[in-house]
Amino acid sequence: MSAFELTEKLVGEVHSQEFALIVVNYANPNMISHTSNMKAAKKAVLAIDDCLAKVLNAVKGVNDAALIVTADHENVECMFDKK
User: Per-residue confidence of the chain (83 residues) as pLDDT tens digits?
Assistant: First the structure.
Protein backbone atom coordinates (compact mmCIF):
# COMPACT_ATOMS: atom_id res chain seq x y z
CA MET A 1 0.00 0.00 0.00
CA SER A 2 1.40 3.40 -0.91
CA ALA A 3 1.93 6.07 1.74
CA PHE A 4 -0.85 8.16 0.22
CA GLU A 5 -3.33 5.25 0.19
CA LEU A 6 -2.34 4.38 3.74
CA THR A 7 -2.88 7.99 4.78
CA GLU A 8 -6.35 8.11 3.23
CA LYS A 9 -7.30 4.94 5.11
CA LEU A 10 -5.75 6.21 8.33
CA VAL A 11 -7.57 9.56 8.13
CA GLY A 12 -10.83 7.68 7.61
CA GLU A 13 -10.17 5.48 10.64
CA VAL A 14 -9.30 8.51 12.77
CA HIS A 15 -12.56 10.20 11.76
CA SER A 16 -14.52 7.02 12.49
CA GLN A 17 -13.31 7.06 16.11
CA GLU A 18 -13.79 3.28 16.11
CA PHE A 19 -10.39 2.49 17.59
CA ALA A 20 -8.75 3.55 20.85
CA LEU A 21 -5.29 3.06 19.34
CA ILE A 22 -4.01 2.96 15.77
CA VAL A 23 -0.41 1.99 14.99
CA VAL A 24 0.93 2.68 11.50
CA ASN A 25 4.29 2.11 9.87
CA TYR A 26 5.35 4.38 7.02
CA ALA A 27 8.21 2.32 5.59
CA ASN A 28 9.07 4.63 2.68
CA PRO A 29 12.05 6.52 4.19
CA ASN A 30 13.60 3.33 5.52
CA MET A 31 13.16 1.39 2.29
CA ILE A 32 14.49 4.22 0.14
CA SER A 33 17.51 4.76 2.39
CA HIS A 34 18.79 1.31 1.47
CA THR A 35 19.07 2.42 -2.17
CA SER A 36 21.47 5.31 -1.43
CA ASN A 37 19.47 7.35 -3.96
CA MET A 38 19.45 10.89 -2.54
CA LYS A 39 16.82 12.20 -4.97
CA ALA A 40 14.44 9.35 -4.11
CA ALA A 41 15.14 9.79 -0.39
CA LYS A 42 14.20 13.47 -0.50
CA LYS A 43 11.03 12.61 -2.40
CA ALA A 44 10.11 9.92 0.16
CA VAL A 45 10.68 12.21 3.14
CA LEU A 46 8.63 15.01 1.57
CA ALA A 47 5.82 12.55 0.81
CA ILE A 48 5.74 11.33 4.40
CA ASP A 49 5.78 14.94 5.60
CA ASP A 50 2.67 15.62 3.51
CA CYS A 51 1.02 12.45 4.78
CA LEU A 52 1.72 13.27 8.41
CA ALA A 53 0.27 16.75 7.94
CA LYS A 54 -3.00 15.17 6.76
CA VAL A 55 -3.02 12.77 9.69
CA LEU A 56 -2.33 15.59 12.14
CA ASN A 57 -5.23 17.60 10.74
CA ALA A 58 -7.51 14.58 11.18
CA VAL A 59 -6.35 14.03 14.76
CA LYS A 60 -6.91 17.70 15.61
CA GLY A 61 -10.57 17.22 14.70
CA VAL A 62 -11.11 14.47 17.28
CA ASN A 63 -11.58 15.24 20.98
CA ASP A 64 -9.08 13.61 23.32
CA ALA A 65 -6.94 12.30 20.47
CA ALA A 66 -3.16 12.43 20.21
CA LEU A 67 -0.62 11.82 17.48
CA ILE A 68 2.71 10.31 18.49
CA VAL A 69 5.40 10.05 15.82
CA THR A 70 8.49 7.96 16.43
CA ALA A 71 10.98 5.82 14.55
CA ASP A 72 12.35 2.38 15.29
CA HIS A 73 15.79 3.29 13.95
CA GLU A 74 17.61 5.76 11.76
CA ASN A 75 18.58 5.40 8.14
CA VAL A 76 17.45 8.05 5.70
CA GLU A 77 18.84 10.98 7.69
CA CYS A 78 22.27 9.32 7.64
CA MET A 79 22.32 9.91 3.89
CA PHE A 80 22.26 13.66 4.58
CA ASP A 81 24.70 13.80 7.49
CA LYS A 82 27.38 11.13 7.70
CA LYS A 83 28.51 12.22 11.22
Answer: 699 999 999 999 999 999 999 999 998 887 887 888 888 888 988 999 999 999 999 999 999 999 999 877 766 766 666 65
Query: What's the CA gap between 64 and 52, in Å, rounded?
Result: 18
Number of alpha carbons in the 13 Å side-chain half-sphere of residue 19: 12
Number of Cβ within 10 Å of residue 20's Cβ equals 5
* Structural contact between residues 33 and 41, judged by C-beta atoms closer than 8 angstroms: yes
Q: How many CB atoms lie within 10 A of CB 36?
A: 9
Domain range annotation of the chain: 3-79
Query: Rounded to an integer, what distance in angstroms lies between the CA atom of residue 36 and that of residue 79?
Result: 7
Query: How many other C-beta atoms lie within 10 A of the C-beta of residue 59?
Result: 17
